[in-house]
Fold this sequence. Notes:
The chain is of the alpha+beta class. It has helices at 3-35, 91-113, 146-174, 194-210, 216-230, 236-245, 297-301, 317-324, 331-349; strands at 80-83, 87-90, 118-121, 129-135, 251-252, 258-259, 261-263, 271-272, 291-292, 305-311, 329-330, 352-354. 45% of the residues lie in helices and 12% in strands. It has a 4-stranded antiparallel beta sheet with strand order 3-4-10-11. A two-stranded antiparallel ribbon has the order 1-2.
Amino acid sequence: MNNASKKQTSENRYHKRILKTASRAAIIFGILMISGCSLIEIPRARSGHLATATNGIPFPDPCNLGRHSYDIGIGEVGGIVYTCKAGHIDLDHVRGNADNTRFLVSKIRRALKNNSKGFSFIITGETSTHHIKFTYPEGWKTNPDKEQITEEIAFATAPYLSLTATTWHEILTWYGVHFMGFEPEYNSAFSWEDMYSNLLGTKLGVRALKNTELSFDSAMTVELDKALKELDVQPSKVAYDASDSVRDNWYTGYYVPDNKKRNFDIGLDGYITPTLVPGVKECEGVKPLPMAVPTLDVLKSYGFTMTHRILPNVLEQGRMFKAAGSDKIYAQTHIPIIMEEIKKEAVEKGYMFTD
């Protein structure tokens, strides 16, 4: 067999492996959508919504959002709300990141308790694998404060990983990855409400976990309601009208809208600043409220280091490797580099964006 044939055979095997992984992920996704996460302990999937006044986008009553559910989700309400201080909020992104944070707190606790080298995880419905590796400080195994330090690290590091993983999700979407084979591609990546909603979810997840008087679901229900009030949430009509007011400017289309307005602020300066819709009379004079992103400072303060490598496991990964300038993706190093390439592409496509 000549070199060209060998290369083609290798590529065919690789594509078959990726498709097999994607098929398995789709099956798991379907199971989770039906039965919740109780079968395999990982958070169930949520779809998320664009903040566009278009077909199929729900704008629920913010005073009646149901009870949060890590599992099946009966009675839980999703969709888009509008707040004066943070603009549009995608409730499904908030809930999903809260659940991911809970899941990752558990993974980190287990790893540090067992002195493991690390762990791997996959966000529900995706094929990318996140490999987390720890190095430990001297004397960790016999540290008398091991349990207390583990809790501090878990509560600080889990939201960091959750936000990073969902930032990677937006990158995948930008590069055209179809998670279920039929949903829109880059038209929804980094839509103006995504990153702030994701970050809010990580914050609320930690607050809910620290509530020792209520279950996680009950605490999340309380925390979400409290947070939306603090952000000055508005009635559903205001949310819809705010979206409708930027039609043909921030987005076009009715059934599969294309966002012309993106927010690429992933918190590299320490904060994510929300995008407010101009001219919402109910919010006149209100300024956007930036939110601090989670960091690894607590981890480092106790003498730990952590690496986060991402294996894309998608057919489109060649474009990501090219953007990163590497075929090995390390989140802290390469996500900022990839984002710069995405911004260049956004300019070429004629999109508006903030960063």
